Amino acid sequence: MLKYTSKIRETARRLLTEHRVDAVIGFRKGTVPMICQPVLITTPQEVDTLYWDSFCGVNLANYLPKRQGPIAIVAKGCDARNIVVHMSENQIKRDQLFIIGIPCKAMGDRRKITRALNGQEVLEVTEDADTIVAKGEGFEMPFNKADVLQDNCAICIHRNPVIYDKLIGEPVPEQDGIDRYADVQKLEAMGADERWNYFQDLVAPCIRCYACRDVCPLCYCPTCFVDESRPQWLGKSIDPTDTMTFHLLRAFHCAGRCTDCGACEQACPMGIRVRRFTRKLEKDVLELYAYEAGMTMEARPPLDVYRPDDSGDFI
Amino acid sequence: MNEVKIQKERFANFLNSLTDSYRLYGPVRQADMVNFVPIRDTTEIDLSFQNTRLSSKSLFLPQSERMFEYSLDPARDDAHILKEVPRDYSPRAVIGVRPCDAKAFKLLDVNFDTQEYRDPWWVRARQSTTLVGLGCTTPCSTCFCTSVGGGPFDEEGLDVLLVDTGEAFLAKVLTEKGENLFDAAKTIEPADEELVQKALAIEQEAASKIVSRVDTSRLGELDTLALYEADFWEEVHFACINCGVCTYVCPTCWCFDIQDETHGRAGDRIRNWDSCMFPLFTLHASGHNPREEKLQRVRQRFMHKLKYYVDKYKNGVACVGCGRCVQYCPVNIDIRQVCRLMNAIAPPDRRPMHACNIAWVRSPS
Ligand code: SF4
Ligand code: SF4
Ligand code: SF4
Ligand code: SF4
Q1: Among A30, A38, A210, whose Cβ lies nearest the Cβ of B243?
Q2: Residue A139: beta bridge partners?
Q3: Could you tell me the end-to-end alpha-carbon distance of chain A, in angstroms, rounded to an integer?
Q4: How is residue A120 annotated by DSSP?
Q5: Residue B259: Cβ-neighbour burial (10 angstroms; 0-12, 13-18, 19+)
């Protein structure tokens, strides 16, 4: 991780010094353990604030849409795929970007760590290749990193960026033999009522803060449907129908675009597993159209093209 | 002041003895978090939390509150007449409120209960509620209550304060409402001197555990415009995604939006939490939005809490240092850092004058 940090700084310093870019989007160390903050730096003097560790789970592609001028961005596997999605949706141009690719070693989940510690507060975290050590008042607990990964990282099969201008380390081996859809299959096996109740319970604690939407690179609409007032599609209260409508529509808007980066789930202050919605759509798009979001600029996203032989008798 | 001893093993009995006279609310564990809910079974109450995920403000300012109901049915005599939704304002006791949240209620009073306006829903909920606080023996690393006029055993706004001394609680009865609560509980054991001393030692130790400090001393004297135009907003706002987390978890954020919801011919007028971080918050009917940019919205949140409020009420900052926004902001925007930046700007007389700024301020808007 330290190696990545110094490589990121080195690259950023060179790009800014040589005026190849106006700014670099990366992470800096957070003010509390187990979270890093997205940062934009514009001068070589600031490059030492750039930082990397296993808690850079926020998807930086979220900061790109409609940005002007040449810009560098630090990108994990999923971030890079969301950059491709942005380019195919005309949110940013390839020639504006210098992508600092991170061969991603998967992100840790601060909630899993806190849960394993029975809520004891973590005051400091250190890590090496396979271990994360959480320290607090009167305890020091080593975790096997593989046990405390973000759920999406544990099943990720595209850790290396699909697109980059500089890769800051050797590519990491991709995981194979991963059963990516065990969770979705469980949902599919449920009857309609059971499934409906499952999702009702899932979103019951939702406070409609919209962090899951706002942290998502896909959600760049100038006015989200939930914020439309003429007509108003959605009530403002925490009525369960409105809450469910938000979640279902948000998920459908992500179909064929979601990279399963997990940022939404990490952002939720109420710990709601919002990926439960998007995962099913991801699986359907893969099965119906043999398409994975953000892998290439060559293929248009399935929801953006019509083919007479599209699968599905619903057309 | 009256001090009472409640043995831990008798605590459930104590709570049960209140249920004839009070509706009980308290902290209950829900998966990974603890939040305030109505209590059906007093054994559900969990006082082992550091702080609740959501603040207890929803007890007085629910996220969605039906204020009025109406009918649009022309056949009815009361068609188109707003009628207040009946609510239960019988005595209520809230157990386990942290001192920061209790201080926040006092702070919200300056908005909802003033000489000019008395919000009836707020006022009646406040009047009918007895607050039994719980001092913080193990504060979080993000707590900075001692920097903003509070403390882990601060009594402001509480009717009773519980000090956890291990085997027993020392209950400090602070107000008449608190006395009434113990009258209802009937069996009372006065605290002995040993317990009082033990509680004092615990309080002192807890205060020393709050290591997070923020200097707010200059905020009042600093020039508003200088703060408004400070360069650091550019840096502060970048990561923000303008979600509602910081304002929704905050005990002092009081903004709301009133909406009518009609279903067929019946409808409700509902008051809902709102957030200055949402672009919709300031969108005018004309389509104009005075806070169109993210930077403006981020600045508003901090300026309101740390400058406008300070100037208007001369009552400190509009933050009680609970640290929730620090813990739950998805991108680690930390009010302590922002406060440090604000408090440290150069005094106005050392700043160069910008002709364009002055023109901007004077131009009619
Ligand atoms: S929906 Fe969630 S997982 Fe999918 S791209 Fe958006 S933030 Fe990432
Ligand atoms: S982040 Fe969580 S609480 Fe907020 S709207 Fe999304 S699911 Fe609901
Ligand atoms: S400061 Fe953090 S919690 Fe508040 S709106 Fe911005 S991103 Fe959301
Ligand atoms: S601004 Fe943050 S720290 Fe201050 S009272 Fe609100 S949530 Fe707590």
Answers
A1: A210
A2: A136
A3: 49
A4: P
A5: middle
Question: What DSSP string describes A230-282?
Answer: TT--S-SS--HHHHHHHHHHHHHHTTTT-----HHHHH-TT---THHHHHHHH
User: Which of A238, A267, A271 lies closest to B330 in CB terms?
Assistant: A267
Q: Determine the topology of domain B2-62+84-208 in CATH.
A: Aspartate Aminotransferase; domain 2 (3.40.640)
> Can you read off the two tokens belonging to residue A258?
């979601």
Cis-peptide, bond into residue B74, ω within 30° of zero = no
Q: How far is the CA of A154 from the CAs of A126, A150, B111, in angstroms?
A: 20, 6, 48
Q: Which residue type does B94 have?
A: V
Smallest CA–CA separation between A215 and chain B, in Å?
6
Helix or strand run (H / E) with residue A186: helix A182-188
Nearest CA to A258 among A301, A211, A209, A315? A301
Measure CA B122 to chain center: 13
Ligand 4: distance of its center to the CA of B278 in Å? Answer: 18
Sign, CA dihedral A92-A29-B292-B261, equals: positive
Q: Find, among A151, A60, A159, the residue nearest to A105 by Cα.
A: A159
Asked whether this complex has an ipTM greater than 0.85, the answer is yes
**Rounded distance between C-alpha atoms, residue A299 and residue B111, angstroms:** 56
Over residues B117-136, the mean pLDDT reads 97
- Per-residue pLDDT reduced to its tens digit, B239-257: 999 999 999 999 999 999 9
pLDDT of A88 above 60: yes
Q: Which residues on adjacent β-strands are paired with residue A167?
A: A101
**Structure tokens, A122:** 């973590």
Report strand pairing: A131-136 vs A166-167: unpaired
In the stretch 271-300 of chain A, residues with CB closer than 8 A to chain B read 271
Domain residue spans of chain B: 2-62+84-208, 224-350
Q: What is d(CA A237, CA B138) in angstroms, rounded to the nearest whole number?
A: 35
Contacts 24+ apart (CB under 8 A), A297-306: A297/A84, A297/A87, A297/A88, A297/A94, A300/A88, A301/A85, A301/A88, A301/A256, A301/A257, A302/A256, A303/A255, A303/A256, A303/A257
Going by their DSSP bridges, the two strands A131-136 and A124-127 should be labelled as antiparallel
The predicted-structure confidence for A154-192, as pLDDT tens digits, reads as follows 999 999 999 999 999 999 999 999 999 999 999 999 999
- How far apart, in whole angstroms, are the C-alpha atoms of residue A64 and residue A97? 10
CB burial class (10 A; 0-12, 13-18, 19+) of residue A277? Answer: buried
Question: How far apart, in whole angstroms, are the C-alpha atoms of residue A117 and residue A130?
Answer: 19
Tell which of B332, B334, B337 to mutate to test the A interface (max A CBs under 10 Å). B332
Instruction: Dig out the tokens for A183 from the structure.
Output: 């969770």
**CB neighbour class for B194 (10 Å; exposed up to 12, middle 13-18, buried from 19):** exposed
Identify all chain B residues contacting A271, using CB atoms and an 8 Å cutoff. 31-33
Does pLDDT of B1 surpass 70? no
Determine the average pLDDT of the residues in B111-124: 96
> Could you tell me the distance, in angstroms and rounded to a whole number, from the CA of residue A279 to the centre of ligand 3?
26
Token pair recorded at residue A204: 């019951």
Contact B82, B120 (CB under 8 A): no
Gap between the Cα atoms of B141 and B145, Å rounded: 11
H-helix or E-strand containing A56?
none
The two tokens of residue A311 are 């699968």
Structure tokens at B69: 């109901």
Q: How far apart are CA B53 and CA B34, in angstroms?
A: 6
**Two tokens, residue B60:** 């007085």
Point out which residues pair with B113 in neighbouring strands. Answer: B118
